[in-house]
Amino acid sequence: MAGSSSGLVAALTAAAVATVGFLAYRAEATVPPGLAGKPGASATPVATKAPRDRQHPTALPGGSGSGERVVYSVDDDRVWLVSAGNRVENTFKVFPGTVDPVPGTYAVMSRSNAVTGTDGAPIEHVVRFAEHGGVVIGFSAAVDGALPTPDPAVRTGGVRESRTDGEAMWMFATVGQKVVVIR
Question: 2, 160, 168, 179: least buried by Cβ within 10 Å?
Fold first, then answer.
């Protein structure tokens, strides 16, 4: 019995250390550039207001970072999938839930191929990247292709896409992929 108890303690300790490491990684990913490791550095994402090209509303907004990334504008309800060379590979409209992520830089933290959404609908290609006020935020597509209007009384972080766009997101945004949220 003593041998199995020590094995259980070792397994729980390893799980706790892994969880703390993951949370530290997520917190570090949101520290503004130049502040990492400095006393008083905040893990609060930095808000950015990106200038828009109103003549070309699908153009990648300035101030949305660099390198390979997903850019999500909460004001425009639009996503851009951007390659390492700053080339837009795809852009599409999305339909957010009732809780928006705070503008800043995140990393995809987990994915699920198929689950049930908060609204009870079967969803696929779930790409989770943020948490705000206890609500996990991620992109997904309803299996039936529906783009419902969320119930404002229910706190949801699902950002719905069409099935085609959900497939594109799934192929592009693997765990660790940078996600830049802008206004």
Answer: 2
Instruction: Kindly state whether residues 96 and 167 are assigned to the same domain.
Output: yes
Give pLDDT tens digits for 127-175.
999 999 999 999 999 999 998 788 999 999 999 999 999 999 999 999 9
Spatial separation of the C-alpha atoms in residues 101 and 158, rounded to whole Å: 11
Provide the pLDDT for residue 43: 39
The CATH number linked to 102 is 2.40.440.10
Radius of gyration for the alpha carbons in the chain, expressed in angstroms and rounded: 18
Residues 78, 40, single domain; the answer is no
Measured distance CA(51)–CA(72) in Å, rounded: 14
Residue count of the chain: 183
Residue 104: phi and psi, rounded to 5, are: 160, -170
Task: Tell me, yes or no, if the pTM score tops 0.85.
Answer: no
**Is 49 a member of any domain?**
no
